[in-house]
Amino acid sequence: MAWIYLLVASVFEVVFALATNATHGFTLLGPSLLTAAAAGGGIFFLSLALRSLDVGVGYTVWTGIGSVGTVTLGSLIFDEPMSAGRALAFVLIIGGVLGLKLSDRPADRPAPAA
């Protein structure tokens, strides 16, 4: 369930970033309210995910998915440029997120001794 919470938190993170851009310096009420709500939602669902996930994994995945989603949708919605270098960087971020997911230890298995 923690990974589902983390995905929901990541969606809120993308909405937060895109809405922040649409606030025009918090001069528009609607996008400003959406920004605040999305920030709260993202942090709330991240906190639920971190009940089970290591903070390093959870936060990294949250920001990684948020970054890729924000840049992808930013290029579509706000006509921001997408270069080959950016696309390669996003592929690397997605690879890192997948690697973190695959290396996550199950909650019922104890952590290795230090």
SSE blueprint and pairings:
Layout: H1 2-22, H2 29-49, H3 55-77, H4 84-103
Task: Give your account of this protein's structure.
Helix 1 (2-22) packs antiparallel against helix 2, helix 1 (2-22) crosses helix 3 and helix 3 packs antiparallel against helix 4. It is built from 4 helices and no strands. The protein has one domain. It has 114 residues and is mostly helical. The two termini are 27 Å apart.
What's the count of strands? 0
**Count of DSSP H/I helices:** 4
Helix content: over 70%
- Which segments are poorly predicted (pLDDT under 50) over 5 or more consecutive residues? none
State the separation between the terminal residues, measured CA to CA: 27 Å
Secondary-structure element series:
HHHH
As a percent range, the share of strand residues is: under 5%
Query: What's the story with the biggest beta sheet?
Result: none
Number of domains: 1
Principal-axis shape: flat
Q: From the alpha-carbon coordinates, what is the Rg to the nearest angstrom?
A: 16 Å
Structural class: mainly alpha
Could you tell me the mean pLDDT?
Answer: 88
